Amino acid sequence: MTTSETSSATHSAFISVDHLSKRFGNKLALDDVSLHLPKGETLAIIGPSAAGKSVLMKCLVGIYGADGGKIVLDGDDVSQTNAPKRAEWAERMGMLFQQNALFDSLKVWENICFRQIELGTLSRKDAKAHAIHLLGLVGLASESADLTPSDLSGGMQKRVGVARAISTDPSILLLDNPTAGLDPVLSNHIERMIGKIAEQRGTTVISITNDMQIARTRYQNLMMMHDGKVYWSGKTADIDDAHNAHLTQMLNGSSQGPITMRTGKREDHVYS
Amino acid sequence: MSKPQNAPGDVRSKGLVDYLNDENVRAVLYQIIAIGLIVLAGWYLVSNTLYNLEQQNISTGYGFLDLEASFEISETMIDYSAKSSYASALMVGLLNTVKVSLLGIILCTIIGTIFGVARLSSNWIVRKLATVYVETFRNIPVLLQLFFWYALIPSAFPHPRDALEPLPGVLLTSRGMYMPVPEPDNAYTFMAIAAAIACVIIYFVKKWAKKRQDATGKPFPMLLAGLGIFVGLVFLAYLAGGAPTEMSMPALKGFNIRGGYNISPEFMAVLIGLTVYTSTYVAEVVRSGIQAVPNGQWEAADSLGIKRSVALRKVILPQSMRVAIPPLTNQYLNLTKNSSLAVAVGYPDLVSVSNTTMNQTGQAIEAISIFMSIYLGLSLLTSLFMNWFNKKMALVER
Asked: How far from each other are the two terminal CA atoms of chain A, in whole angstroms?
């Protein structure tokens, strides 16, 4: 699936990224990244920090536009943020952010159905009912609908983030470190919950993780990134012990791939 | 009472030192002593003042307010002449203070917001220019800035004879700015009433629109409809009032310009000085407010396919407001209080008029008590309004 040389795979791919590049100032955050994923399959992206995993995900969801290369989703070219099909894909894609990025100014149920409320596709009454249904799916009581995100614990916030990501019943689910900052028991629980929801709905899932164990056991495909490049990609089933040792070593940063710190000042830009 | 040695029956057997060391006794005794000292000091000051005033044959009380002021005030918003009472002179001063403060608050908010956003711009020149503006005007005492503007206006603009006319009817001279204004007419009263009625209608339409959106999810173009109702009603009132077109145009007559509305150099100096100075602080407040909202909030809204303008209104602003409103209130209060510096450039604000009153009547304590309570009242009103506004913005419940 992942190597772009196999043209037959490229054609059948639901998500297809070709030679994608993205730079911020002088830093090349993504350098010739390609990935192809058939519909309904799951992919784990793994790699040390500053490898470009989150940037790739934000390019997919349309927060950043590509500087080079192409992103094609189910035949629609959405490489740029202003691509004509982008608006449609905002509905068909859901994303869970690393820090959840819940809207503190809104209640939990308004968070979950923010899109539907703002676009007027659901009345507020129906939106709330829909939100409560989703809260049930992620294992939260309906009473939490009227709380604000700051009232919730970290694990609960994560669940609300998942509920928001699946609120439009998307065909693609993007998860940026869904278990970051959670204890192992809760991590396992959240991963299992997401896996179950995605399986029931036939959702294509791309997830960033730092846990090789979770990546190997829960995902069908694996992509290892380092320094903006794809270092290794393939079926998780194909990973043998030698591979595993090498990749794990890589991930921990103790072998050849030096972990580079993100350099350069972060500039604050006002969005207007 | 909790300790056994403090049991009532034991007191007699203890010495005076033990008695004074008793927690319960201390709590009451020291408070009584403190209050007693304050009352004593207050009584001393008041009685001394009264005695001194009596020696100087100055009668105390606020009776002087009804006396004829017999001094002119250069700019007034209400009818006033030298024959008016001290009370109306103080009223003129109060209105002038309120006028310059209110305009200053509005202008410094607008200018400060622009520079605050500009300081975060991705454009190097815009960012640096905004930084220079903020760092320059923030670090010069506001009194010196008032002097600067007051010195600049008479020397930078020509004599009324050679008045600059940047727009037809608008004259810039060393004696201030002149603008054409409509001649008084009943139609303008109708228009004001129509505007008030329009606001009431808009309020109810907005309520209905919100109810409909809650029930059906259909959004209502409130901004457009509101604008239509307001402009339409006001324009109808204008037509009904006979559509007056007569204007009072400023023109040179003799050595000075007559007609139109005059904005004095004193007023301009105070307004520009206070606005520029406070806007630098507002710029910093705005910048901190925006930066306090994590970037992820923009990205999350973006990923949901929400328009930037909606995200700004529903997600970003409510969160930055929460951070920005309390320090913004401080700046508004500072501006209002700093307007008392107007006395330095001869703008007839409350302090300036009170000073004249004090000099003429000798009623210093009364005059000072009046303007101090007025400033206190103005500040408390501002605080109350901003607290209400803060509550409204912090809890964006619909």
From this structure: 40
* Cα–Cα dist A205/A199, whole Å: 10
Per-residue model confidence as pLDDT tens digits over B46-86:
899 888 888 887 777 888 888 888 888 888 888 888 888 99
* Torsion angle defined by CA atoms of residues B334, B339, B340 and B344, in that order, rounded to the nearest 10 degrees: 130
| Cα separation, B330 vs B286, whole angstroms | 13
* Distance from chain centroid for Cα B398: 29
| Beta-ladder partners of A205 | A42, A173
Of A122, A125, A269, nearest to B120 by CB-CB distance is A269
Of B216, B219, B291, nearest to A268 by CB-CB distance is: B291
pLDDT in tens, B114-135: 999 889 887 899 999 999 999 9
Residue B396 in contact with partner chain A when CB distance is under 8 A:
yes
Whether residue B255 has pLDDT greater than 80: no
Please determine, for the modelled complex, whether the ipTM score is greater than 0.90: no
Instruction: Say which range, A75-79, A264-268, B277-281, B325-329, has the weakest mean pLDDT.
Output: A264-268
Interface contact B83, partner A, CB < 8 A:
no
Closest to B65 in 3D by CA, of B352, B373, B354: B354
| Cα separation, B215 vs B208, whole angstroms | 11
Question: Of A64-73, A104-113, B127-136, which one has max mean pLDDT?
Answer: B127-136
Quick one: which H or E segment has residue A15?
strand A15-24
DSSP B307: -
Residues 6+ apart with CB under 8 A from A96: A158, A161, A162, A164, A165, A173, A174, A175, A176, A178
Higher per-residue pLDDT: A102 or B322: A102
pLDDT band for A256, please (50, 70, 90 cuts).
Answer: very low
Residue A101 to residue B297, Cβ atoms within 8 A = yes
Residue B262 C-alpha, separation from nearest chain A C-alpha, in angstroms: 38
Q: What is the mean pLDDT of residues A38-42?
A: 91
Q: How far apart are alpha carbons A186 and A194 in whole angstroms?
A: 12
Alpha helices in A50-146 (DSSP H): 53-61, 86-92, 108-112, 114-119, 124-137
Of B298, B324, B286, nearest to B114 by C-alpha is B286
